[in-house]
Amino acid sequence: MKNKELLNTLYNDVKALGLASDQFEFSIMCGRSPAWFSTIKARNLPLTTDAALTLSFNIKTKAAVILDLSAKSDAMRLSNLLIEQAQQQIREKLARNSGCSIS
Fold it and tell me: Domain boundaries in the chain?
């Protein structure tokens, strides 16, 4: 999936769950400034590991008060997907840096 598609899918999923009503709230859930989401979309920047983990945490926190079990299950699945994505980013970064020497 391309970066912009991934970002839009994440945003639409969070919005569909009722956890954010607009891009500003989504940005805040990612631990960023209100204009952050529109900026990374416009510049085609990836979701950082930190933003993915912060969003995952906030989804889990908000999902704890969702009464609808189906929505809660969807929220937890999305949160876990974000954690997996962050872990993959970390593995890739470690692999890139494994050949570097520290002086």
Answer: 3-89
